[in-house]
Write a structure and sequence with these properties.
This protein has eight helices and no strands.
Amino acid sequence: MIVEADDRLLVGAARRGDLEAFDVLVRRHQAPVYRLALRMLGSEADAEDAAQEAFVQAWRSLERFRGDSAFATWMYRIVTNRCLNALAARRPVEGLTDRYPEPAGDPAEVAERRARLRAVADGVLTLPPEQRAALVLREFQGLSYEEVAQVLGVSLAAVKGRIHRARLRLIEVIAGWE
């Protein structure tokens, strides 16, 4: 609640032209916005571009932000739309990089976990964009089903259906890996 209140105050100040307030919003939300874009697009360069463009669009559209949702939810919607547009324009050609924390333990188990994570990441990139967006927002960004519906501008039933189909597809991909 405090973060939301702080975001609302910062949004108000940014609307009045306070660049420092908007800078605080960017710093506060840039990591989750970037992670969402990376999981959607599968390319660090494309994710950086999408995140940066999303914040530029947010700055330009700040007057239209009604405050019906949290600033973070609004940013997720902007970057998700950017990513969906990018995916519609082309298919990703490079996968996610191996930036997983270095787990401790038996090297064979570590290698197996890393390979399984790679299979899941690659599987996510094979999903249709609308399924990918719903799954990434729910499972990787931690949004509730209702928040995902709000970000994507679809019904709760549509979100649940998309996530269900995405999970089924990932199970197929992972079963093929094993």
